[in-house]
Description:
Elements: E1 15-17, E2 21-23, H1 31-34, E3 41-43, H2 48-54, E4 62-67, E5 70-76, E6 99-100, H3 106-116, E7 120-125, E8 128-134, H4 145-160
Parallel strand pairs: 3-4, 6-7
Antiparallel strand pairs: 1-2, 4-5, 7-8
Amino acid sequence: MPLIEQSTTRNEGGVEFGGGRQACAPGEATVADAMVGRPKLLPVTATGRDVRELFLDDHVHAGLVVDGDRLLAVIERQDLAEVRDDEPATALGTLSGRTVGPQADLWSTWTWMTGAGIRRLAVVEDGRCVGLLCLKRSGRGFCCDAGVWARARERSTSRRCPPEP
Length: 165
């Protein structure tokens, strides 16, 4: 399966962000306009086991390890090959090629991400993790806080309800 699948959203030559807005050219939006502002974070004390548990949610594709709000590492699933459960999470990932600034141009960032097959970038300002840029599987848009919140709420509700007969 390709990293970025065929688009299932409207294809008007642009990229969707913010729950319905669209950028069709450079200069129309910034990464800050499209990032998830409250990504799941791992503390500096996290281990390989903690990262594996985070990735049990199939919607989670990047582990962001922070010390307070300072980003220390971005871990992707492929980083977990042959990792010990007690290994410090800070040693598992990297920041190189996995971060972007909030004022970066969204169109240019999207073009680079789709060309490189990258779906997640930590958004960092002055070393602080301020968000996560999450490209949808279709490659035609970015996840937004409202969508992430709705999906989490739907999952928690479905766990409490018994399955239909």
